[in-house]
């Protein structure tokens, strides 16, 4: 029989202290001293972890704050209204008008999108259809359904049947969620009023008025003013948050004319706001910051609206009986300052057709009519007999022409092996220089031009700035103008210069191409007796009078040249300008002018087409306004000359100018008699 187990060290269990002491001793004996090695290891690890936390909080907090900012903040930019454009008298040429829109804030529809999604999913499951759309597809359907319901509410109020574009909606949802989604952007003022009255105050539907360009005079000065187009590239200088994800409301930018040339000046300063967004990308109101857009700066042009409208109406008045529109341009310049008073080019286009965007039919019509071309600065034409003024200057300066020179005109002149006729194929007989200008005698200028020489003609033309860009503040001024000389012909045609080339050049034919603006500057320079007239489209009431290099003529030569131009308007090829029956306003106005008719190849073949010219200035004894008109003939071989077409257009412009000139005097007399 086994013996009961006896503890080798019996304890007195009745003594609690002894019992506890024994337990402690027993526990100690079970402890492994090697565990002490892990204490420092654990301590180091804890210190490293705590140090890492401290480092992240103390030294990298800015980095994490920056990451949080970039992830949860968004920037919204709003374009500024563009500045206005005025004429020299402060009349509005280009402004802004409100375009009424109804928009929908998608970030306010999160709950509706979710409920619609659940309803659609439930319906598909109840139907047991095997072709159940994916979750993402059902989300697209849900968003479309909700947005269309709101649009239907708008349709009901204003009587329309507009539909939401699913593609546009999804593109907006994925790329422009923080921006309002535009349901309709062409509300009338009546639509706007009805919606404002009937829509709930706290509806996600919002009525807004954005700024679009407005051209109160339609097509007036269309090539000068230019037009705008939509852009996402709006100026954001000084707006914080450049590194944030940015959403931009589309703005406008200049595409042509002054709108393009001074786009930065007109564009203004963008406004907007910075919002926090939730993890789904929806914005959280209120914004962290907000800035109101600042309208662009205004521009005062040198144009006189009255003269501009008169010039355009004058060109239109030359339309054929069948309504065929005539193409051409007219430019009027202040002789004293170079400020452009009028610059008309036809055909043109209605600038309001570009707001908010140009339709395909309107664009096609502009293309077919050739109306994109600003003929005042891009139309290049042989100057015809208006160039005889330059030939006279070259002959005077070469010493081959004197104020009292006479040439016998037999109606034709042999140059080399060719016969060159006078312009009307009639013999003028002995003819003086002033009368040769007035009657546009080719024989006189063949003689003087050949005597002066082609290089003198070319060099003097270049002295006036002909054949060069004028530097007018407009984009796309043509640089293809041309002044030929023997070196040019050899280089470009591989041929030697002949006296026949000089004869042609002397009367403005051959290898010469100038724009109407160039010729208006030339006329202004002749009026002042100086070489250059830099044109400008910007009005400055304090602009000093121009003083450039003198032409280099003696007073007698200058006076004889102007006298020839005065005779042109009195008894010569532009004598209609002296008809008091047509222009009673010109009773006390002395006009100096020169007509011209040039021939250009017919693009359809056959007989050549005529270009009708007039250049001149008034008053002849105190020049203030210079004019150039160039009109394109479109019927081969027709009687289409400077005296019958271009001079009357200049007359209408001068009539408008004279009326304005007389008005202040009449007002002054009225005040004096009170």
UniProtKB/TrEMBL annotation:
**Biological process annotations from GO:** cell wall organization; peptidoglycan biosynthetic process; regulation of cell shape
Query: Which GO terms fall under molecular function for this chain's record?
Result: penicillin binding; peptidoglycan L,D-transpeptidase activity; transferase activity
Any one annotated GO CC term: plasma membrane
Tell me which residues make up the Penicillin-binding protein dimerisation domain.
Answer: 79-284
Q: Which UniProt keywords apply?
A: Carboxypeptidase, Cell membrane, Cell shape, Cell wall biogenesis/degradation, Hydrolase, Membrane, Peptidoglycan synthesis, Protease, Transferase, Transmembrane, Transmembrane helix
InterPro entries per record: Beta-lactam/transpept, Beta-lactam/transpept-like, PBP_dimer, PBP_dimer_sf, PCN-bd_Tpept
Residues in Penicillin-binding protein transpeptidase domain copies: 328-654
What topology in the membrane does the UniProt record assign?
Single-pass membrane protein
Cellular localisation: Cell membrane; Membrane
Which stretches are transmembrane?
36-55
Q: What is this protein called?
A: Peptidoglycan glycosyltransferase
Supply the source organism for this entry.
Termitidicoccus mucosus
């Amino acid at each position: 029989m086994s013996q009961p187990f006896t503890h080798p060290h019996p304890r007195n269990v009745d003594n609690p202290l002894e019992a506890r002491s024994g337990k402690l001793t027993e526990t100690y004996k079970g402890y492994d001293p090697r565990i002490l090695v892990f204490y420092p290891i654990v301590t180091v690890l804890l210190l490293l972890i705590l140090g890492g936390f401290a480092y992240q909080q103390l030294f990298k907090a800015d980095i994490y704050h920056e990451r949080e900012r970039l992830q949860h903040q968004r920037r919204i930019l709003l374009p500024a209204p563009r500045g206005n454009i005025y004429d020299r008298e402060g009349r509005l040429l280009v402004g802004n008008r409100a375009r009424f829109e109804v928009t929908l804030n998608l970030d306010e529809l999160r709950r509706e999108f979710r409920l619609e999604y659940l309803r659609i999913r439930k319906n598909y499951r109840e139907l047991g259809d095997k072709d159940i759309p994916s979750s993402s597809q059902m989300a697209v359907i849900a968003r479309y359904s909700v947005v269309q319901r709101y649009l239907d509410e708008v349709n009901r109020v204003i009587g329309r049947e507009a539909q939401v574009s699913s593609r546009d909606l999804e593109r907006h949802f994925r790329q422009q969620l923080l921006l309002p989604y535009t349901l309709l952007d062409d509300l009338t003022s009546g639509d706007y009023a009805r919606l404002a009255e009937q829509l709930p105050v706290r509806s996600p539907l919002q009525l807004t008025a954005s700024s679009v360009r407005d051209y109160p005079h339609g097509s007036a000065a269309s090539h000068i003013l230019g037009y705008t187009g939509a852009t996402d590239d709006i100026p954001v200088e000084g707006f914080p948050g450049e590194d944030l994800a940015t959403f931009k409301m589309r703005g406008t930018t200049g595409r042509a004319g002054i709108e393009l040339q001074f786009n930065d000046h007109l564009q203004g300063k963008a406004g907007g706001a910075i919002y926090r967004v939730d993890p789904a990308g929806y914005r959280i109101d209120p914004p962290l910051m907000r800035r109101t857009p600042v309208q662009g700066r205004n521009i005062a042009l040198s144009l006189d609206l009255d003269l501009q409208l008169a010039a355009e109406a004058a060109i239109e008045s030359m339309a054929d009986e069948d309504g065929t529109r005539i193409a051409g341009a007219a430019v009027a310049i202040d002789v004293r300052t170079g400020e452009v008073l009028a610059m008309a080019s036809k055909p043109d286009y209605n600038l309001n057709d570009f707001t908010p965007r140009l339709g395909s039919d309107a664009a096609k019509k502009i293309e077919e009519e050739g109306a994109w071309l600003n003929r005042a600065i891009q139309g290049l034409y042989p100057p015809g007999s208006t160039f005889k003024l330059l030939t006279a200057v070259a002959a005077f300066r070469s010493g081959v022409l004197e104020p009292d020179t006479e040439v016998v005109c037999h109606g034709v002149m042999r140059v080399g092996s060719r016969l060159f006729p006078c312009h009307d194929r009639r013999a003028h007989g002995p003819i003086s220089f002033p009368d040769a200008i007035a009657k546009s005698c080719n024989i006189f200028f063949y003689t003087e031009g050949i005597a002066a020489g082609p290089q003198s003609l070319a060099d003097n033309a270049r002295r006036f700035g002909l054949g060069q860009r004028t530097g007018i503040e407009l984009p796309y001024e043509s640089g293809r103008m041309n002044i030929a000389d023997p070196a040019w012909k050899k280089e470009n045609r591989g041929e030697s210069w002949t006296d026949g080339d000089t004869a042609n050049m002397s009367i403005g034919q051959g290898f010469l191409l100038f724009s109407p603006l160039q010729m208006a500057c030339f006329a202004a320079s002749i009026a002042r007796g100086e070489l250059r007239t830099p044109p400008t489209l910007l009005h400055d009431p304090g602009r000093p009078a121009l003083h450039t290099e003198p032409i280099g003529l003696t007073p007698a030569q200058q006076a004889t040249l102007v006298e020839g131009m005065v005779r042109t308007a009195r008894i010569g090829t532009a004598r209609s300008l002296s008809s008091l029956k047509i222009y009673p306003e010109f009773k006390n106005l002395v006009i100096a002018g020169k007509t011209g008719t040039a021939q250009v190849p017919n693009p359809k073949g056959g007989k050549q087409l005529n270009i009708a010219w007039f250049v001149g200035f008034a008053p002849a004894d105190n020049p203030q306004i210079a004019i150039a008109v160039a009109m394109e003939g479109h019927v081969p071989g027709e009687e289409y000359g400077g005296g019958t077409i271009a001079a009357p257009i200049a007359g209408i412009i001068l009539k408008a100018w004279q009326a304005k000139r007389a008005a202040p005097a009449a007002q002054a007399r009225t005040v004096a008699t009170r």
